[in-house]
Amino acid sequence: MSTQHTVFDSTHLPHALELDDWEVLTDFYTTFLQQLEEFLQLVGATVSPMSLEEQRHHAHKLGSSCRTVGAPALASLLEKLEDVCRSQADEGTRNALLAEIARLGADTHQQIASHLSAAGRD
Known about the structure:
Elements: H1 12-17, H2 22-44, H3 52-69, H4 72-86, H5 91-121
Helix pairs in contact: 2-3, 2-5, 3-4, 4-5
């Protein structure tokens, strides 16, 4: 994947909210990580995979959250998923995109969790 976007920009959320209250920021990041984990579990589910409409809905919801916390690369992929779902792209196309989202989602999760851990020690 060649992304022209940063995986995670730790300066984005504090700047967007115009605050530096670590407790509030931690709440935002923690909620986002929970949402991302839930989505990644849905993506990896083989027992009850998501329908096209569920994929579109989750992509829209999580994409907005990605933009808020400063994860533009994942937000872009989720926007692309939303678009391919809207155009009712075939399952193979969506599955390939979901696999890419899962990889980048795991990287994004790791970077935000590391940021939380490091900043929490300061």
